[in-house]
């Protein structure tokens, strides 16, 4: 038996810390295992589903304003516990503390938006659709809903999902990433403290076995997923085949176009944060710069080289760090392998971050920032999502060439353009085949009261995550048409189709 603390499940309001299967959770800054996370077998997930099912009738009938108040309480608790939560995120993910705080803040904004559920659920009403006939649409909760989340935002991405789901009257089962599960579970405990009744939100830690149970159990009505594209596609296909509503957000390869008229200094500082922030482990990160014209490319590369030389890489808890380690040893090896591959493919490695060691943290998963020039669309480092601190510059001659390249890529999550030309920016935003677009904004992550989602193979399903789309995703429309005939008035049978002619 391991003596490490266990991260368990939260089912029916109770923490469960005993289980047969478990795996280590590592601190990427040190490379040491610091916790064990339980991996739920089918029976444990079924227990969570039963608890969520039992909690549904009373929660569905709880006035929306009371449900929303829980979200208000939770916002206060999340702010109060911010330091504790960010420490958990950094200890398991590796990102620097200020970045963890940014993630938490974005998550809190989703809780805030969910607290407007009474307003968002008001529905639509039409009086006199026929003589003395009224009609309205209401948005009813689905029942038991589920979410499966990735490692890169252990606090924020779960908060994209369950606060709106439960504010709409559903109950929820969350399956967090097994790589950094602590903050996710702690937030669920805080939700209980905020007044969420037991069983309304359940957390099961686990792997494929847990996910497959959620995807196939008929009691689960809808599944939200965020993670890599191959798994997103599997989740979508399997969930839909089992009659569920599914939204599955996948991977990305976001291009930033830099036009010849752009303010290069400004573009370079924006690109630094977008490429290397959180070690490139963001689905909205910028791993590719498309420079229009060789002069633009040369200026961007010179600027990036100068900025990279000033970057501080080390443990996310140390003050003043710009970048922490990658999340796990296998992921570190994978990202390093992509850098090797880029060199073999003939791209020019301008800055080589391989071989970096951080004194006192020799076993941590540190890779320094890497910069490639002359990346070409046929290369693996162009096509595949690397999810690390590796930025590639592609040289093109025109904006149209840049746009054709972006449109041809399998992913369409985010993109941005740096320019001073309004006409070019408008043409770009209007025509590019990507779901989230920035103009002189490198990470155009929509705020909580818009919705988040990519196009092409970055999202399977129709509705985007959080914001107004989430209200539609977690509810089903029911349209009621009603009349109260006056006593004594009888029309008799009508055989023609009713219309307002
Ligand atoms: P991942 O796909 O490996 O894992 C995501 C979730 O799926 C985890 O909970 C994991 O336990 C589960 N899972 C993994 N393999 C599974 C399998 N075979 N069957 C069933 N479930 C399985 O993703 P990750 O590495 O945790 O996260 C990084 C990925 O997520 C990147 O591709 C990134 O672009 C993507 N991401 C996308 C968005 C977005 O909004 N589009 C946001 C964040 C992250």
UniProtKB/TrEMBL annotation:
What keywords are annotated for this sequence in UniProt?
A: Oxidoreductase
Q: Which domain of life is it from?
A: Bacteria
Q: Record's InterPro entries?
A: Ald_DH/histidinol_DH, Ald_DH_C, Ald_DH_N, Aldehyde_DH_dom, MeMal-semiAld_DH
Q: Which Pfam families match?
A: Aldedh
Q: Which GO terms describe its molecular function?
A: malonate-semialdehyde dehydrogenase (acetylating) activity; methylmalonate-semialdehyde dehydrogenase (acylating, NAD) activity
CDD domains documented for this protein: ALDH_F6_MMSDH
Enzyme Commission numbers on file: 1.2.1.18, 1.2.1.27
Residue ranges of the Aldehyde dehydrogenase domain? Answer: 21-480
* PANTHER family membership: MALONATE-SEMIALDEHYDE DEHYDROGENASE
The molecule here is called Malonate-semialdehyde dehydrogenase (Acetylating)/methylmalonate-semialdehyde dehydrogenase
């Amino acid at each position: 038996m391991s003596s490490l603390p266990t991260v368990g499940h939260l089912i029916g309001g109770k923490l469960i810390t005993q289980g047969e299967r478990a795996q280590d959770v590592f601190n990427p800054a040190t490379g040491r295992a610091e916790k064990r996370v339980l991996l739920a077998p089918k029976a444990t997930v079924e227990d969570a589903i039963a608890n969520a099912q039992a909690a549904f009738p009373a929660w569905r009938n709880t006035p929306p304003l009371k449900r929303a108040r829980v979200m208000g309480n939770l916002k206060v608790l999340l702010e109060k516990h911010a330091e504790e939560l960010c420490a958990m995120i950094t200890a398991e993910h590796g990102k620097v503390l200020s970045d963890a705080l940014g993630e938490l803040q974005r998550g809190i904004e989703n809780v805030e938006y969910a607290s407007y559920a009474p307003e968002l659920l008001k529905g639509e009403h039409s009086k006199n659709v026929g003589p003395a006939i009224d009609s309205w649409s209401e948005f009813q909760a689905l029942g038991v809903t589920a979410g499966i989340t990735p490692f890169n935002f252990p606090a924020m991405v779960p908060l994209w999902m369950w606060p709106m789901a439960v504010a709409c009257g559903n109950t929820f089962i969350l399956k967090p990433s097994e790589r950094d599960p602590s903050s996710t579970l702690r937030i669920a405990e805080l939700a209980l403290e905020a007044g969420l009744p037991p069983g309304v939100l359940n957390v099961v830690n686990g792997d494929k076995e847990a996910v497959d149970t959620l995807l196939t159990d008929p009691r689960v009505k809808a599944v939200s997923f965020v993670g890599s594209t191959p798994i997103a596609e599997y989740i979508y296909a399997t969930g839909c085949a089992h009659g569920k509503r599914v939204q599955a957000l996948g991977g990305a390869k976001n291009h930033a176009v830099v036009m010849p008229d752009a303010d290069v200094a400004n573009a370079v500082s924006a690109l630094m944060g977008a490429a290397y922030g959180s070690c490139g482990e963001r689905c909205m990160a910028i791993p590719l710069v498309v420079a229009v014209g060789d002069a633009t490319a040369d200026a961007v590369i010179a600027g990036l080289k100068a900025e990279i030389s000033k970057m501080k890489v080390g443990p996310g808890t140390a003050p003043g760090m710009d970048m922490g380690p990658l999340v796990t040893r296998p992921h570190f090896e994978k990202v390093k392998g992509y850098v090797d591959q880029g060199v073999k493919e003939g791209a020019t490695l301008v800055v080589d971050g391989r071989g970096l060691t951080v004194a006192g943290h020799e076993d941590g998963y540190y890779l320094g920032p890497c910069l490639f020039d002359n990346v070409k669309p046929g290369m693996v480092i162009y096509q595949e999502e690397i999810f690390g601190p590796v930025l590639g510059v592609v040289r093109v001659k025109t904006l149209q060439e840049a746009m054709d390249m972006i449109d041809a890529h399998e992913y369409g999550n985010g993109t941005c353009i740096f320019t001073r030309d309004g006409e070019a920016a408008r043409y770009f935003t209007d025509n590019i085949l990507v779901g989230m677009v920035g103009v002189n904004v490198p990470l155009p992550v929509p705020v909580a009261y818009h919705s988040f989602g990519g196009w092409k193979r970055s999202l399977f399903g129709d509705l985007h995550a959080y914001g107004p789309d989430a209200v539609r995703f977690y509810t089903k429309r029911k349209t009621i048409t009603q009349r109260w005939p006056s006593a004594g008035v009888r029309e008799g049978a009508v055989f023609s189709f009713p219309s307002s002619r």
